[in-house]
């Protein structure tokens, strides 16, 4: 903006320069030079007063505008780099500020999973998490279900239009962990891996069935491993988890990826019975068996030299019984009253 009056033009220049240096920008509106201009009005000849007054007002308006423009800029927050939290090299002050929460807590299933894994770590197992999207080879082929195998129908889950599969069990990881750890065998060490993961089934939902739940898979391979090792491992784990002696039994079953295959059951302990009708109840907890020679072969392990066992079962189910929870669907229900009982 330019000013006709020489005096006002000079003051305008001076004040705009000062505004740049001022820390408290609004102070400029109280500048003595501005007040001085107003004070000059009565000293001027009548004819000049109106024009002079108008230009001072213009100057004040311009300064007010510059002050508010600066305030708007100051309110603009610095940009946030959304990739920073994932960038291990990003400096702490470059990462976004996230809200801290003193109210949330870990989901009870994950707390239980931690304690389950701790037991297996003490038994010498490693843990590998399963994938939530997988392919036909890992879901079926590598587990000895060739195309068209009727047992494929027992694992009805969700697929993408590209043919990818939301895994119906954590066994999808068997081929991967066997390959990953087979160097152990050459060193004379066993393969001991547990695989927790989220799995999916196209199920009719009820108090014991969810479409999305968690499983824990286990794989143990070495020289001279037999079904006695399988039963002892599972019994030891379950007695540690439930902190009491348990009666266990196996009954014959069929899975394409084990031979022989079993269902593993425990007798429901007295304090884990919700009512008298649960007395002497055998609870089928998981599927297990000796790893089929074809499964070992497909992972490049010689079944004549090594044998192994595997199992897989629902984590939710273990937790349901531990706390006598009546409905598996509570876990995913976001019912805070339910969840808070565990924190
Ligand atoms: N994957 C099976 C299921 O979800 C459970 C199972 C059975 C896992 C036998 C195993 C196994 O590793 O050896 O029904």
Q: What do these coordinates show?
A:
35% of the residues lie in helices and 18% in strands. It is elongated, with a radius of gyration of 36 Å. The model has no long low-confidence stretch (mean pLDDT 90). The chain is an alpha+beta fold and 343 residues long. It folds into two domains: 70 residues, no CATH class; 233 residues, 2-Layer Sandwich (BirA Bifunctional Protein, domain 2), CATH 3.30.930.10. The protein has a seven-stranded mixed sheet, sandwiched between helices. Strands 2-3 form a two-stranded antiparallel ribbon. It has eleven helices and nine strands. α1 runs parallel beside α3. A hairpin with a 5-residue loop joins β2 and β3. The structure holds 3,4-dihydroxyphenylalanine. 3,4-dihydroxyphenylalanine binds next to β8 and β9. 3,4-dihydroxyphenylalanine (DAH) binds next to β8 and β9.
Defining traits:
343 residues, alpha+beta, BirA Bifunctional Protein, domain 2, 2 domains, 7-stranded mixed beta sheet, two-stranded antiparallel ribbon, 35% helix, 18% strand, elongated, binds 3,4-dihydroxyphenylalanine
């Amino acid at each position: 903006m330019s000013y006709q009056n020489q005096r006002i033009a000079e003051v305008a220049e001076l004040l705009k320069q000062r505004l740049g240096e001022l820390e408290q920008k609004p102070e400029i509106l109280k500048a003595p030079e501005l007040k001085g201009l107003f004070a000059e009005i009565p000293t001027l000849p009548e004819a000049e007063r109106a024009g002079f007054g108008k230009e001072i007002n213009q100057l004040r308006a311009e300064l007010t505008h510059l002050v508010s423009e600066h305030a708007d800029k100051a309110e603009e927050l610095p940009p946030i780099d959304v990739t920073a939290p994932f960038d291990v090299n990003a400096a702490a002050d470059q990462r976004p500020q996230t809200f801290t929460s003193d109210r949330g807590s870990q989901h009870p299933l994950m707390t239980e999973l931690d304690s389950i894994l701790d037991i297996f770590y003490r038994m010498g197992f490693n843990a590998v998490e399963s994938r939530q999207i997988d392919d036909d080879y890992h879901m079926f082929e590598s587990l000895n279900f060739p195309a068209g195998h009727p047992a494929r129908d027992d694992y009805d889950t969700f697929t993408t239009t590209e043919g990818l599969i939301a895994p119906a069990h954590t066994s999808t990881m068997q081929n991967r962990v066997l390959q990953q750890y087979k160097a152990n065998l050459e060193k004379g060490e066993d393969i001991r891996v547990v695989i927790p993961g989220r799995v999916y089934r196209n199920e009719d939902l009820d108090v014991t069935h969810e479409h999305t739940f968690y499983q824990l898979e286990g794989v143990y391979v070495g020289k001279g491993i037999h079904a006695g090792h399988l039963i002892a491992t599972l019994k030891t784990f379950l007695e540690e988890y439930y902190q009491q002696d348990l009666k266990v039994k196996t009954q014959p079953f069929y899975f394409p990826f084990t031979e022989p295959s079993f269902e593993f059951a425990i007798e429901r302990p007295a304090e884990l019975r919700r009512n008298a009708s649960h007395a002497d109840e055998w609870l089928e907890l998981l599927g297990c068996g000796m790893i089929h020679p074809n499964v070992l072969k497909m992972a490049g392990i010689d079944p004549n030299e090594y044998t192994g066992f595997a199992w897989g079962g629902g984590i939710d189910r273990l937790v349901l019984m531990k706390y006598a929870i009546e409905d598996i669907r509570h876990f995913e229900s976001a019912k805070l009253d339910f969840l808070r009982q565990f924190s």
